[in-house]
Amino acid sequence: MNRLNTKVAVITGAGMGIGREAALLFAEEGARVVVADIDGNAAKETVTRIEAGGGEALAVTGDVAVEADVERMIADGARHFGALHVLYNNAGVLWKDRDQSVLHTDGQWWDRVVAINLKSVFWVTKHGVPHLRRAGGGSIINMGSVSALVGFTRAQDAYTAAKGALISLTKSLAIQFARDGIRCNIIHPGIVDTPLQAPYLTDALRKEFEAGIPLGRIARPREIAAVALFLASDESSFMTGAELVVDGGFTAG
Ligand SMILES: NC(=O)c1ccc[n+]([C@@H]2O[C@H](COP(=O)([O-])OP(=O)(O)OC[C@H]3O[C@@H](n4cnc5c(N)ncnc54)[C@H](O)[C@@H]3O)[C@@H](O)[C@H]2O)c1
């Protein structure tokens, strides 16, 4: 309890999946949470659950790929809670039907997938860092993927390229803002049981994935949120520019 006491955290894509779990967990640990999502009802539902547990949160609705939306959501969060300390760039999309091999992906879907998974971090950082500086420091957490670390025969090339670029951006932000007391790290989850994977996770595919994961199962959202909590908290105060792989041993095999 209280690992994030006094901190205000913005979590993008906090209406569902890992983002929602992180919002609930951060609030349990004393953070006040800005729940940002393109789905306003989902964001409100996360806030309702946080409030039911005695926590404090604000729902803000917008598209992380659109600068004006991000600017407004960050400003609303900062105004409401008076400061910002954590920017958790969690929102992302995996559209296996439209984002495949470069040979079969339409340019418009490439652009949209990269805008949501990568350009969003540009907007959140641009508009969020001034608040972290004003607070005397903070933590930026980016969401990568094991897709950025290894190739797959079933390709999602726009997603993979965006997540790979996030590794480089994470290191650049870590170095640039270190002297401001702002840390920046990236988490690479393996497969996690969330609405993002649900449309694709047939029983057969789940079994195939599980067979390739040394721990023998896919992750629960809370197992990723727990690592984000560590990176948001002062327990990780000497970590910046780091990549944390949370994949049940998949890439170690
Ligand atoms: N689930 C996995 O297996 C897995 C694996 C590796 C990495 N990740 C990464 O973890 C992050 C969270 O994934 P998840 O599985 O919880 O996803 P999810 O689909 O379950 O939830 C994503 C949330 O982001 C929101 N969102 C989507 N597009 C948005 C936009 N343009 N603007 C604002 N909000 C938007 C959705 O409404 C949703 O609430 C993503 O960055 C994803 O790439 C997930």
Description of the molecule:
- With 253 residues, the protein is α/β, with parallel strands linked by helices.
- The protein has one domain: Rossmann fold.
- It is built from seven helices and seven strands; from the N terminus they run βαβαβαβαβαβααβ.
- The chain has helices spanning 17-28, 40-52, 67-81, 107-134, 157-177, 203-211, 221-232; strands spanning 8-12, 32-37, 56-61, 86-89, 138-143, 182-189, 243-246.
- A seven-stranded parallel sheet has the order 3-2-1-4-5-6-7, with helices on both faces.
- α4 (107-134) runs parallel beside α5.
- It is globular.
- The mean pLDDT is 97.
- The structure holds nicotinamide-adenine-dinucleotide.
- Nicotinamide-adenine-dinucleotide binds next to α1.
